[in-house]
Amino acid sequence: MSRKASTSLHSHIRTHTGGERFRCHLCQKSFTDGSSLSHHLRTHTGERPYKCQLCQKAFAKRSTLSSHMRTHTGERPYKCQLCQKAFAQSSILSSHMRSHTGERPYKCQLCRKAFSKNCDLSAHMRSHTGERPYKCQLCRKAFAKNCVLSAHVKTHTGEKPYKCQLCRKAFANSGHLNCHMRTHTGEKPYTCHLCQRVFASGSSLRRHLRAHSGEKPYMCQLCKKLFIQSGHLKGHMKTHIEEETYICHLCSRAYKRKNMLTKHLRWHAM
């Protein structure tokens, strides 16, 4: 057996025995091999030695660069055997399979919510801690998830690189394009396990589930009212604003909320 193969075997065996000999001196996390520790250290230093020659993006790991290159080539070698969708990364295929099985192996120890992806659990934990580590350099808004920051930045640049091949609409991120494509196909892959209603997007399913659980995660910081959806919170915030922005064109009466103006206009129509 070659020395490299022997090293890989020993590292693999440690995943069974729990042996973690390599410890990060900055955060004390432990790893089963030196290469995993080296990759981890880049999360502290910010080092990204692997650069894409086409768009100049840089990555901490060679494997991440290889996956990124598929965004240029369009290659999707990982296929779902149930619905034939194809993906650029095996990890994305693994996450996708949970949309069929309903498996949610990542559980929050504080509120017992469960998630199909570890990154979603990490982002959820910030709803408990209030941490928002991803900051926009243009307007200083902060976000709990890096992907949300990336989508936000495009609202400044106007960049919409993801185009629908059927109607030519363009989107700032691939997730929005995927949801849009379902308006053409009619596909609704997300099923409520409580009432069997189906939805086109995971976010629509999550909002629906709050109708069953009674959860209201959006809190007004001024009066502490709770809301099921962020849109409801935004509408509520206008009740705190002094300025009355919705003006009746018939009598010039002003209202703080659009629905209040709509009700008022019905009174004129009577």
Describe the protein in words.
- The protein is 44% helix and 13% strand.
- It is α+β, with helices and mostly antiparallel strands.
- Among the domains are: 26-75, Double Stranded RNA Binding Domain; 218-269, Classic Zinc Finger (Double Stranded RNA Binding Domain, 2-Layer Sandwich), CATH 3.30.160.60.
- It is globular and about 75 Å long.
- The protein starts with a helix and ends with a helix.
Number of strands: 18
From the N-terminal CA to the C-terminal CA, the straight-line distance is 89 Å
Largest sheet: 2 strands, antiparallel
- At CATH level 3, the topology of the domain at 218-269 is Double Stranded RNA Binding Domain
How much is the average pLDDT?
A: 81
Low-confidence stretches: none
CATH architecture term of the domain at 218-269: 2-Layer Sandwich
Main sheet: which strands, in order across?
1-2
Based on helices, strands and strand pairing, what is the structural class? alpha+beta
In helices, the fraction of residues equals 40-55%
Which geometry do the CA atoms define? globular
